[in-house]
Design brief:
3-stranded antiparallel β-sheet; 303 residues; alpha+beta
Amino acid sequence: MNGNFVLPQGIRIGHADDGYTGVTCILTDKAVGGVSVRGGAPGTRETDMLRAEKSQGFVDAVVLSGGSAYGLEAACGVTEFLRERGVGFSVGDKVVPLVAQAILFDLNDPEKYRYPDKAMGYKAAQTAKPEGVEFGAVGAGKGATVGKILGLQAACKSGIGGATVFFNDVFVSAVVAVNALGDVYDRKTGQIIAGARTQDGKFLNTVECMTNGVFAAQMRMRAGTNTTIGCVMTNAKLDKTQVNKLAEISHDGLAMSIRPVHTDADGDTMFALSQGDKSADLNILMALAAEVTAQATENAVKL
């Protein structure tokens, strides 16, 4: 489901998977990058580099993947792909691609450890394109599920979603791989559209389950087996402090559509990229970032 999804010029997205888990690679043309980690159980690479007070001013790629901590290997494939093309931070006669990453837990095969490796990361970078990006049960969303308070058997299938919102000639786009402990809601109607189900097929309502005491007695999920990860991108020109603010506020979009969100069992992480020269008020961009993140989150479960 890509609808009117568009990317800033210079950004390309590619997916790769093995039928169980996958990786999504976002290549940039030295975009200004930022990050915000709100979940209690994150798995990341090079996120400190993106923080506003650090000296490095750009990022070459953002990687979203399954595989839990094992999946961090996927970024090595993206790094190799970029190195072969001379893309990265020049250090003497060497080049060091700057690749940030966040992972989600989808080690759901009962017999094997399946995770995005270096080869899968390389393939995702090879397939990256500026338009016609596919969404659903692909890439980082391949093994994603939501509503896991009663375990995987009561959860709903999820995936990776995308959306774009415009303000005149400025836009913000989002890609979000949704693998949350909580339920996903239609933010306009307040109705659950994906989440934990009871034996009769009805949605359980995870928040009510947690707050009425059933949580302690029935919950069978394990800490760290969830996580929603994503990236917002704009064609507006932002500095590093501003793009980090955009990453922070994008979590408001997760909160619009996922309940509960940012739990100690989730490693919710959102990146932000500025790739363009358009002028726009930061407050407007933040409002767009929250809205587009919510849209992408809901699209991720509309398979």
